[in-house]
Amino acid sequence: MIRVHDTLTGKIVDLEPARPGRISMYVCGPTVYNQIHIGNARSMVWFDMIRRYLRYRGFEVMYVQNYTDVDDKIIERANLEGIAAEAVANKYEHAYELVMGALGAEQPDILVRATQHIEDMVAAIKGLIDRGMAYESGGNVWFSVEAFPGYGKLSNRSLDDMRAGERIEPSEHKRNPLDFALWKSAKEEEPSWPSPWGPGRPGWHIECSVMSTKYLGMGFDIHGGGSDLIFPHHENEIAQAEGLMGSEPFARNWLHAGMVQMEAEKMSKSLGNFVLTAEIVERFDPEAVRYWALMGSYRSQVTFSEATLNDATQAHSRWATFLTAARHALGDDAPTDLVTHRPVDAAEGEPLPQYVARAVEGLDDDFNSAAAFAAIHDLVREANRSIEGAQLNEPEAKKTLSGLLEQFLELTHLFGFTFPRTTEGTEILGALVEYLLELREDARKDKSFDRADAIRARLIEIGVAVEDTPAGPRWRIADNG
RNA sequence: GGCGGCGUGGCCGAGUGGUUUAGGCAAGGGCCUGCAAAGCCCUGUACAGCGGUUCGAUUCCGCUCGCCGCCUCCA
User: Fold this and answer.
1) Nucleotide B12: closest residue by CA–C1'
2) Which nucleotide lies nearest residue A371, CA to C1'?
3) Whether A333 CB is under 7 Å from strand B
């Protein structure tokens, strides 16, 4: 049984899908008005990981993610750049896909855009008005928070609490200052769509209520996003969906990722204190960035620092180095297939391999990746010991190492690591390096260590690290220096 | 002010009512090596503070201090 932290109840609960064996999940994606920062990326990498894990555990996962491609910021940006709002959205969608791809995130099963669901939203808004949950005023439509008794249940606050906050400016059009926009009338030159209330565009929150239920149905299994979306965004989504359908729940489990901080402050596009993901992916190995994103609990907030990114790089390269070492030691006996599924309901009697079992135990518990990483590191230590000690010509020892390597590949693949640098390059590169190493071995045999060291030094400059072992030299792609 | 969370060894970061160490990074010592690199072994005696519950608390409760998030667009 997989257990997850559910924001609505505030508890760790058993993940019980509405339909056995299937998980439907919806994750709030970016508003595409500029590039994503590393905080956005961490969150999305985590939901990618959650999806991968659920699939690994045997669920058939339907993963829907949205692009908010119409909103004030996009319009602002379009005016600034002198291009159409649509062009702005397209541009940053591409940028998003590029950088998330680099981080090893898989494409959602369904990618939805607000602008492609305007009619659905108009219909939903009409329905809300009909049900007395919303009202029109001057071309705008507002959701009436007082009409939805459950308002505040996700973020655990009451209307009274919020009023005390005093931070929301009352609008003459609103009956209650906390009422939020379902439909905004368009000003001149703004992108707009026809509606019964005049030309305009949807409010931000309605798109997610409409698109999630359209593709996944009411009562889908997991709704995810950053913790900053709890209020008002997700609170409003619940109000809209449940208000419209007259039933609950909108979503069965709410998962929220912790924020990335800059120093002692939240990284935020509006604060301007962000680090672009594209820049980080440029400067660090993308897999190391993924390691960084996944090394702590998804719920924790983390402070961004290059030092931590460097730690992650080192830790990740320990795995990469092990992979080449193990392959070198095993040669043709290295495993090629890897296990990609460990269903929760798998037949009893077939215990999981040791380290896989540890990782699964951790991950079943609200995706405790740190426990799983620890298991992988312990696995690597044991395997390195066996490479070291190693009479690897003994079949028994080889078999042990091979088994460990299988577990390693299974687990790292589960986390989305493929270690491209260990297999990077063409056969020609490999052949060239092998040839140089032959020359170097000749030199070493002649005790011409100067020559041998010169070759090694040159190779490391180029980015190829050479390590001598009793079984001959091995090499790997490495940072130079 | 309301709601939520956090404070673990130099840093990052799990976890637990007690007897055996999370893990990683960094540091020091050692082994291995022609020299390296990689790896392996060893070392550091951590749980903000103060009370309480308990035979026993880092782990439960209360308080104090400090920090952060949400309450406005935001992953």
Assistant:
1) A308
2) B14
3) no
Q: From the CA of A255 to the C1' of B9: give the distance in Å.
A: 32
ipTM of the complex: 0.96
In angstroms, the CA A290 to CA A277 distance is 11
A321-361 pLDDT per residue, tens: 999 999 999 999 999 899 999 999 876 667 899 999 999 99
A164 touches strand B (CB under 7 A): yes
Instruction: Give the largest CA-CA distance in chain A.
Output: 91
Q: A260 CA to B9 C1', in Å?
A: 24
Beta bridge partners of A134: A143
Q: In degrees to the nearest 10, what's the CA dihedral of A90, A96, A97, A99?
A: 140
Residue A267 CB in 7 A reach of strand B: yes
Whether domain A316-418 has CATH 1.20.120: the reply is yes
Strand B closer than 7 Å to the CB of A62?
no
Regions of chain A with pLDDT less than 50: 481
d(CA A23, CA A16): 9
Q: What CATH homologous superfamily does A3-304 map to?
A: HUPs (3.40.50.620)
